[in-house]
Amino acid sequence: MVRAYDVALLDLDGVVYTGARAVPYAVDVLTEARRRGMALAYVTNNAARTPEAVAEHLVELGVPAKPEDVVTSAQAAARVVAERVPEGASVLVVGGEGLEVALRERGLRPVRSADDEPAAVVQGYAADVDWRQLAEASYAVMRGVPWVASNADLTIPTERGIAPGNGALVGVVRAATGTEPVVAGKPELPLHRETILRTGAKRPLVVGDRLDTDIEGACNGGVDSLLVLTGVTTPDAALAAAPGQRPTFVAEDLRALLAEPVTARREGDAWVCGGWTVRVADGALTVEGSGERIDGLRAACAAAWSVDSTGSTGSAVDTSGVAAALGW
After folding, report:
1. I need a surface site. Which of 98, 141, 199, 234 has the fewest CB within 10 A?
2. Do 273 and 298 contact (CB within 8 A), yes or no?
3. Is 11 a catalytic residue?
């Protein structure tokens, strides 16, 4: 893939690292991909941390990264705000340092009170966001100023389990004001645009582990995508992917970046990949053959996704037991 695409737009959690550890193969693959001439951009919905902090964490893990390689939803949100307010305007911040730094980069002045007469409100996740900050945002939004959210992720993973994400906190302000924000992060287009502008990518490949953010964002942006199964998405979930959330390529992990692109091919009424053949019959998938399990999944996904709207979407095809039959 390093010959087919000039820039890999990589999600972080579940793709490059999981918490404090690098995902298996990530360090070696990304180092080699860069050596072969592929540019790497690390694209995250996390608006709390600055690009410098993200790059520092990546380097600690052994991943090649500089601050300018990191693109955050805070940067995308700041650009959206800058396009809507006068230069040097005050902007009410609900969130962390990442948002403040991104706003200053755009020549805007972060403030923390609606009494500072902000020209806009920008909201992102931070662990210390409290009732007071949400109330300040509500006061300002009720006055009619633009409201931009870094992302709308309802939950975030933590070491102790699933916790409320920025989308849940945005919901508090929405409930108080009856207003909808402009969302900058995946799967919406502003973060994709920010990434293309900062990297100058001509043939980008989005690499992610989530269908509803990474892959849907790639579909919205009209670019190819690679789904890796090292994070949130399971083989069963990939088989049931909805239109608009279907990747160009599916792989077990980042090693696919160093290989030639592989997809299933259609042969008559069947989809074939490697030693596997998959058909749709009576609303269910039938699997024959043997070989690498990822090739079987590629053929099964292609078959499930091929069902058109008259037969309903791929999610209506009975895929039960298919992943297990392939060895997952």
Report:
1. 234
2. yes
3. yes
